[in-house]
Amino acid sequence: MKFFIDSAEVAEIKKAAQSGIIDGVTTNPSLIKKSGRKFEEVVKEIAAIVDGPISAEVVSLTAEEMIKEAQTLLKIHKNVIIKLPMTEEGIRACSQLSQQGVKTNVTLVFHVNQALLAAKAGASFVSPFAGRLDDIGYDGMDLIEEIVGVFKTYGFKTQVLAASIRNPEHVRRAAIAHADVCTMPPEVFHKLFYHYLTDQGIEKFLKDWDDVRK
Ligand code: G3P
């Protein structure tokens, strides 16, 4: 499973990328707003840190405008992936961009049928939002499992990018469900390293080693 960082905070992305195991980055308009910085600047800086796909989202509502916006975004860096909303217009844009060889990520997916539409439109990635489904009383990870299963059945090349990840348990479930990618906030990524038995084990080893050297 590829690890993407879901953030537009350059310092945090840099810190996570120092691990050497970050494969890409996803951004969205809310994350850009939170960063308080210019979109283009942020994407360029991210591209200098992580050599992998960087999702940049369009904000237009018609396919024609989305495609126009995509052309501008693609000029920022060769690793930019066009993030499109899961709407009829978004799917129309996805279909046209895919035919032109542009890589896309269809976002705000909450149902397996929506994922199927995106795959049929040739999307490179589809982003089901697990956490937001949990928020309204569903098990968001069930959706990831369903999509992975359906894509496998029909041989779609579209990668399942588990998004709206809120905790390490989501990451575990995404991996067990065979998601291709899991995009997570930096704080979730850093939590993955921790286990109290690991800390306890290190403490004991160090203590025993000290006794050996006495
Ligand atoms: O990047 C999209 C997605 O991961 C958003 O997550 O936590 O705002 O639902 P969240």
UniProtKB/TrEMBL annotation:
Q: Which GO cellular component terms are attached?
A: cytoplasm
Q: Which reaction does it catalyse?
A: D-sedoheptulose 7-phosphate + D-glyceraldehyde 3-phosphate = D-erythrose 4-phosphate + beta-D-fructose 6-phosphate
Q: Entry's PROSITE patterns? A: TRANSALDOLASE_1, TRANSALDOLASE_2
Q: Which keywords, in A-to-Z order, does the entry hold?
A: Cytoplasm, Pentose shunt, Schiff base, Transferase
EC number(s) for this protein?
2.2.1.2
One GO biological process from the UniProt record?
pentose-phosphate shunt
Which residue positions are annotated as catalytic? K83
* Main localization category: cytoplasm
Q: Which Gene3D superfamilies match?
A: Aldolase class I
Q: Does the keyword Cytoplasm apply?
A: yes
Which biological pathway?
Carbohydrate degradation; pentose phosphate pathway; D-glyceraldehyde 3-phosphate and beta-D-fructose 6-phosphate from D-ribose 5-phosphate and D-xylulose 5-phosphate (non-oxidative stage): step 2/3
Alphabetically, the GO molecular function entries are: aldehyde-lyase activity; transaldolase activity
Q: State the compartments where it is located.
A: Cytoplasm
Instruction: Quote the InterPro entries the UniProt record gives.
Output: Aldolase_TIM, TAL/FSA, Transaldolase_3B, Transaldolase_3B/F6P_aldolase, Transaldolase_AS, TSA/FSA_arc/bac
Q: What class of enzyme is it?
A: transferase
Family listed: Belongs to the transaldolase family. Type 3B subfamily.
This molecule's function is given as:
Transaldolase is important for the balance of metabolites in the pentose-phosphate pathway.
NCBIfam families reported for this sequence? fsa_talC_mipB (TIGR00875)
The protein's name in its UniProt record: Probable transaldolase
Instruction: State the organism of origin.
Output: Candidatus Kerfeldbacteria bacterium RIFOXYB2_FULL_38_14
